[in-house]
Amino acid sequence: MPGLRSVALSRRSFLVGSAIGLGTLGLAGCGTYDGMSLAEAEKLYGPVPTEKFPIPAVEVAKVNPKYYRRTVRYETKEAPGTIIVDPSNYYVYRIEEEGSATRYGANVGRSGFLWSGDAYVGRKGEWATWTPPKEMIKRQPEAAKYANGMPGGLDNPLGARTLYLYQNGTYTLYTIYATSDPESIGTGVTSGCVGLLSQDMLDLYARTPVKTKVVVLPA
Question: Do 144 and 134 touch, CB atoms closer than 8 A?
């Protein structure tokens, strides 16, 4: 599961655990990066003031440009609408028509927490309450203060939107969630969940109904 930020409890410390955050490529000026200018990226990842908890703009200089959202060619036998998670390359794909996909940069599970297989979206949540699993509380006792749930908000680990992944009618404890930490994109930092930038997650969430198939590829 993702981590948490509060006065006493660092969200990034939950995400990273004992791992050290990896650096990302910086951007400067108005150059073009992999087909997208800095100005275009700033527009795509600008603030979202209309949300229940207004979402600030992403500091795009902290995100490797290859992880910006874009439409790419993607050949697959999966039906349009299917979500494919590629943890080895830190991407999430939403399959579109005619051999294309919307590709999002992601963070994924760190070593020891990776998983693969087929699942589906069993339920969805907007500004969801986050409740740390018992396994997390055992590993990180300071999370016990949220055993009864942490209300939704900008500091909540699940962020603005959450897709809960199920298998055979059972919640797997894994999610695709919204992160406000741009430096986490392109890294393995979570306890198995998959995080997209909040603006990307808003896009994916709006186009993903319950029962959507999710394929998590082997790392």
Answer: no
Domain map (residue ranges) of the chain: 11-23+66-216
pTM: 0.83
Instruction: Give the domain 11-23+66-216 fold.
Output: L,D-transpeptidase catalytic domain-like (2.40.440)
171 touches 128 (CB < 8 A)? no
Q: How large a percentage of the chain has pLDDT more than 90?
A: 71
179-202: per-residue pLDDT in tens? 999 999 999 999 889 999 999 999
Whether residue 93 is predicted with pLDDT greater than 60 in this model: the reply is: yes
What SS3 string covers the chain? CCCCCCCCCCHHHHHHCCCCCCCCCCCCCCCEECCEEHHHHHHHCCCECCCCCCECCCCHHHCCHHHCCEEEECCCCCCCCCEEEECCCCEEEEECCCCEEEEEECEEECCCCCCCEEEEEEEEEECCCECCCHHHHHHCHHHHHHCCCECCCCCCCCCCEEEEEEECCEEEEEEEEEECCHHHCCCEEECCCEEEEHHHHHHHHHCCCCCCEEEECCC
C-beta of residue 159 within 8 angstroms of C-beta of residue 5: no
Write the pLDDT tens digit of every residue in 174-185.
999 999 999 999
- Residues 69-78 have pLDDT tens digits of 999 999 999 9
Whole-number Å distance between alpha carbons of 7 and 87: 31
